[in-house]
Amino acid sequence: MHALGFAFLQFFLALLLAPLLVGVVNRTKAVIAGRHGQPLLQVYHDIAKLLRKGAVYSRTTSLLFTAGPVVSLAAVAVSSAFLPWAGGAPLLSFEGDILLFMGLLGLSRFVTILAALDTGSAFEGMGASREAWFSALAEPALLLGLAALARPAGSTSLYGILGNASPWTGAGAALLLAAGAVFVVFLAENSRMPVDDPTTHLELTMIHEVMVLDHGGVELAAVQYGASLKLWTLGGLFVSLLIPRTGLWLADAGLGCAGVMAAGIVTGMVESVMARLPLGRVPQLLVAAIAMSGLSLALALVR
């Protein structure tokens, strides 16, 4: 297969399979709890149902409220185009693209916060405040982890860093520390346990879900699909640090898909055995991730 064709296939698979990953997480939790649980394709049905529904808008909202979910989804989609989760060259790549990758994820979060604040709701403002505070700690952990991996790779692009990444070839200790920090960020950025409970309906304890309470119809479909795509993107980033590359496109794509789904199973297991941390303890978890990334960078610099 031509390299450009595989890059399009890699991007298309991420867009197509992202809701399935949420289904894998939910099904894993159901199996561990002894329940039948939702069908694996339930998220697809939910999104399709929302696309056929209308929305009710508060008089206090403006264009920020309706544009937030769309811009957020677009930012996450473009960020996924930089990620070589299937081993081949991504659709977009250039030196220094890790900064744009981080910026796009930050933009997605920023417009979501703006849309929540635009409603004038005290509950959504509370969730937006928590999201901003926790992301201010998660972003340095992810950036330092990528910087630690950029050093031995000799590249500041995601493809240069992850194209041949493997703990068995090169800076193993630094890579494993960075992978641990990325996994914590993966849980925090996607509002999973132990940082947030994605199934709760108690506004006082919610972070992400409370910010989208007033969305409905197409906007809520964009929110749900964007959340699933972000889960796939950060899950693919974590898996890319651990899975060795074979150089065979189909084999790497199969390993990548299996690895991301395995990350979904692990996420479901974590959510089944861990309780949600008190809000005051979440910053401690993220600071620990920053420390892991910082130690990884120190090991990479002295290597």
Q: What is the strand and helix layout of this fold?
A:
Layout: H1 3-33, H2 42-51, H3 63-80, H4 97-118, H5 122-153, H6 158-162, H7 172-189, H8 208-211, H9 217-242, H10 249-273, H11 282-302
Helix pairs in contact: 1-9, 1-10, 2-9, 3-4, 3-9, 4-5, 5-7, 5-11, 7-9, 7-11, 9-10
How large is the count of helical segments?
Answer: 11
Order of helices and strands: HHHHHHHHHHH
What's the number of structural domains?
1
**Measured distance between first and last alpha carbons:** 37 Å
Radius of gyration: 19 Å
SSE class: mainly alpha
Sheet with most strands:
none
**Which residues sit in consecutive blocks of at least 5 with pLDDT less than 50?**
none
Shape: globular
Beta-strand residue percentage: under 5%
User: What is the percent of helical residues?
Assistant: 55-70%
**What's the mean pLDDT score?**
89
Quantity of strands, as a count: 0
Condensed summary:
With 303 residues, the chain is mostly helical.
Describe the 3D structure.
It is a single chain. This protein is mostly helical. It has one domain. It is 70% helix and 0% strand. It is built from 11 helices and no strands. The chain has helices at 3-33, 42-51, 63-80, 97-118, 122-153, 158-162, 172-189, 208-211, 217-242, 249-273, 282-302. Helix 1 packs parallel to helix 10 and helix 7 runs antiparallel to helix 9. The longest helix has 32 residues, at 122-153. It is globular, with a radius of gyration of 19 Å. The two termini are 37 Å apart. The model has no long low-confidence stretch (mean pLDDT 89).
